[in-house]
Amino acid sequence: MDIILLQADSTVMSSGAPGMSLWALFFSGGIFMIPIFALLVLAVYITVERYLTIKKANQSPDHFLAQIKEYVKKGEIDKAQAICHATNSPFARMISKGISRLGSSLEDISASIENVGKLEVYRLEKSLFLLAMVAGAAPMLGFLGTVTGMIQAFMTISTLTESVKPSDLAGGIYEAMVTTAAGLIVGIPAYLGYNLLVGMISNVIYRMEVTTTHFIDMLQEPVK
Predict the structure, then answer these.
(1) DSSP code for 60
(2) Chunked in runs of 10, what are the mean pLDDT values of the chain (224 residues)?
(3) Is 199 inside a domain boundary?
(4) How far apart, in whole angstroms, are the C-alpha atoms of residue 199 and residue 137?
(5) Distance between CA 182 and CA 192 in Å, rounded?
(6) Are 4 and 150 in contact (CB under 8 A)?
(7) Is the separation of the CB atoms in 19 and 165 below 8 Å?
(8) Torsion over CA of 79, 81, 82 and 85, rounded to 10 degrees?
(9) Is 32 a domain residue?
(10) CA 121, CA 119: separation in Å to the nearest integer?
(11) Parent domain of 113
(12) Please, are residues 71 and 80 in contact by the beta-carbon 8 Å criterion?
């Protein structure tokens, strides 16, 4: 850890800020660095949690559907439901609802499956609006920090009666630049993560639609 900090210190010193560590550079961004850091933690948590959840939900339902088809054809509805209950996936919950409606019209079965599908999509999209909020709010907070930092720099100039030295403006400029960079560092990955998760959910929705179609087609197959 000491080696990393020494390397970080040397990096900052070589960039023209002698003796300033990364922590000092972080805090030089002012009070706006606190909400930006909080947004970073929130974005990382949501991205990782949703990614794992959606990835688990996106497992191929082909083997599951083959088992369901076999039991339904044999009239072993209880075994088909048991497989659905043992399989923790959106596809299983949709098919389970369809099986529970066997004996009704195909339109009724399809509608009941579709309703469950909507609930599953809602669960998958949970908290994504917060990630979108982070993607938009973090750069805006950084920009706000930039504005306040530049105001501070100009206020310093206005109070000086002698010639202005670079060190007199350093505080305001540091705050302006650091908050801008921090806001973008948080906002850009959050934006990319949001779009990645939306794309994964779209793939799950496609598979849900295909699964529903295959199940309805299976019910319409003639009994041999």
Answers:
(1) -
(2) 38 43 60 89 96 89 85 86 88 91 88 92 92 94 83 70 61 73 92 96 92 86 60
(3) no
(4) 22
(5) 16
(6) no
(7) no
(8) 170
(9) no
(10) 5
(11) 59-125
(12) yes
